[in-house]
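User: Hi! I'm working on a homework problem where we have to compare a predicted structure to a textbook description. Could you give me the structure for the chain below?
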Amino acid sequence: MAAPTTPWAERAARLYDEDYARRYRECDDGLVDVGATRALAEWLREATLRFDHPIDVLDLGCGTGRYFFALENVHRLVGLDASGAMLAEAKQPPHQDLVRANSVTLVNGDLLTHAFGQEEFDLVYAVGVLAEHTPLTRALVDRVRTWLKPGGRFAFTTVHPESPSVSRGIARQFAQSLLPFAPGLLGRALHTRLMAGGMYADEAWVRAQLTPGFTIESMERFTSEVHLHVRAVAVKERR
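Assistant: Happy to help. Predicted structure tokens:
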């Protein structure tokens, strides 16, 4: 039986239809070697090189397979996406001749409900998906942790609430100015409201969702052509 889908996945499947996916893939050819896309590809490449053995990798929200070519030392690569149209484009991803994985499997599914095996992957990554198209929550982090082998890594980007792309009405501006002075439960509630329940994620939100269970290896702000992001790599703690 197929896993149920959430509204987040259903929305993505509607948005990324065949026409959108085709145009998205054409855009990839112009972006993959420049700017933020190239920087993110190098960031992912460095993450794969931190392993001293061939690794199994899961790309959450792989889209057209934009970053497949960047991965080194990969035995098995699984790309998961809610859009069948995007996965059809991922069969011939950007720089297909540079994809080094021994095997590539594309899976049409919802990252919030799809089931993978326990300790199946060495690296799980998500670029432009979490705290953007689906919320970054502790429940999602716990799912990823289950899929990772001990010592495995979770690499991802989020949209920072201070991104110029985030609408700042008077209420949001007031809440942001109040947050540093709000104590205890009030401060946490206000912070959750500003993060829209995980649809945005600043450094404090990322840290709160990852710990305990992960050790943060790196975390920094990163600016793309569209957003201000948090970019993080975390290591699953060994029992």
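For your comparison, note the following. The radius of gyration is 18 Å. The domain at 7-169+199-236 is CATH 3.40.50.150 (Rossmann fold). Good luck with the assignment!
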